Amino acid sequence: MSDNKLVLVVDDDPDLVEAISMKLESKDYNVSKAYDGIEAWDRIKEERPDLIILDVMMPRKNGYELCDEIKNNPKYQDITVILLTAVGSAVTTTSYSHQDGMNTLADDYIPKPIDLDKLMSMIGDYLS
Prior knowledge:
Blueprint: E1 6-10, H1 14-26, E2 30-34, H2 37-47, E3 51-55, H3 63-71, E4 80-85, H4 98-103, E5 108-111, H5 116-127
Parallel strand pairs: 1-2, 1-3, 3-4, 4-5
Helix pairs in contact: 2-3
């Protein structure tokens, strides 16, 4: 079916990307994958996904930077962005904070470790 929505999964953890991708594919979404913010930006320009699941802490370009680039670009700003954030449990060891998450232009965020069923239900809400 060509009307299947395309979801871009961006995380520097290949196992997590695979787990989310398999879950999405089982629900008939088309899936694209990227492992850092720069690769993700290339995918966005090539494929224009309907929704992006975006990890915050990544090499080369982090999720907040990429999210702001997407949301400040008229060509892509209507793409739904869900941030994956592990910062809740690591606030003392990271320069990121939930405050950053709330200030970002992302449409939503979900904490790590990810509840895949909750994530699928969020995606379903946004793409329905």
